[in-house]
Structure formats: C-alpha cells, structure tokens
Design a protein that fits this description.
The structure holds 2 protein chains of 2 kinds. Chain A is mostly beta strands. In chain A, 0% of the residues lie in helices and 55% in strands. Chain A is built from no helices and 11 strands. In chain A, strand 6 and strand 7 form a beta hairpin. By secondary structure, chain B is mainly β. Chain B is 0% helix and 48% strand. In chain B, the strands form 2 sheets. In chain B, strands 2, 4, 5, 6, 9, 10 and 11 form a 7-stranded mixed sheet that branches. A 4-stranded antiparallel sheet of chain B has the order 1-3-8-7, with no helix packed on it. In chain B, a hairpin with a 2-residue loop joins strand 5 and strand 6. Chain B is globular, with a radius of gyration of 13 Å. Classes of the chains: A mainly beta, B mainly beta.
Amino acid sequence: DQQVKQNSPSLSVQEGRISILNCDYTNSMFDYFLWYKKYPAEGPTFLISISSIKDKNEDGRFTVFLNKSAKHLSLHIVPSQPGDSAVYFCAAKDRNDMRFGAGTRLTVKP
Amino acid sequence: GAGVSQTPSNKVTEKGKYVELRCDPISGHTALYWYRQSLGQGPEFLIYFQGTGAADDSGLPNDRFFAVRPEGSVSTLKIQRTERGDSAVYLCASSLNAGQGTEAFFGQGTRLTVV
C-alpha cells in the first residue's frame, strides 16, 4: 500500500541549475509533509517541511510546494550544488504515523 | 544524548536465531518510529509508539516481529526465527510528538544480515 510515491528514481542536473523533486500521496488525512536527505551509511536527515495549511515553505536554497487538491508536493533546490547529491525522501504524517516514498537519487554535476 | 542512537550498528545472525535491536531516542521525545529499509527502497513503516504504547503496529510484517517501549524512552525491536528476507537496515526515529510541526530525527540505523 504505497501511500506516498516518488515516481522518479533518479534525477541529474548541472551545478547552478534548479533541481525539482516530486512526490504524490493518496491519503487525505496526511497533514504534515517533510523532505529528508540521505547519504550512504547514514540515517535520513531532515531537510524541510510544510504544514497542510500552507502551500509554500522556503528555507534558503530549498523550497517546498504543496498542492493539496492534487495531493502533490515538490522540492525545489536552487541553485543546485554538487554537495546536494544524495537520495531525497518525501514523507507524510498524520496523527499516527509517518510514511515515506521510495526516494529520488539526485546527482548534481559540476 | 544529542541524537537518536541505535545499537548495534551492524548485526550478522544465522537464520532461525533471535535478535534484538535497540533505539535510544532523543530525550523528551514522546513519539518513536521503527522503519525497515531495503536496498533501493524508501523506509518501510513498521511501528509507531506514542509514549509507552504502540499507537500503530500495522507495518509489522508478521508475528515474528515485536517491539516494546516499556518506559516511554528506549525501544527494542525483537525479531524471532530470523529469515534471510529480514536482512535490511532497520531505522529508528523520534519526534517531540506526533503532531504537525514536529520533524522526526533518525538514528544511523542497524544493518541486519541474516545468513
């Protein structure tokens, strides 16, 4: 039961350009959404989040957009840097648990 | 401690054996989550604790898996009669509570290998 989906397993962008990572969810009870970044052999690290009452949250180079009607969120990274290369997971929370997508591997080329 | 701590970091066990994986959450965090991650996959939800009680254990794959959090802090994930398919990285996360505005922080994971 995939309640959170990341349909692009990988994304490659040039340094300085924008990276856009997408995520879709099916459960309308989710009310908080998060993006995590993961390097090999480490646990996921929290990056940015957004409440369901907002449609945009910005933190430096990272912006998360939420479209509730489409049950879609995206993470924009601009400008992308080689150090951003990692696996990015989208997560969605309701009262009881937090579900993750399968991840998107971002590669930023110098 | 400063972050979520999981022990051991690596565990190799023989098929059929019993294993325990430990998670020390961030002090004061009432919500605790266990996930399992296989290669190329996202974290798969196993169980969520709010305080001492398992608020949602719908992700536990079968009755060989069990988790406890007796004092509302440290949690132990227990796997009986391990099978090769149980091999994965087991991740633990904690958050201040389960509501909005509270991100969860992860430990580094325990890599379980069943041979």
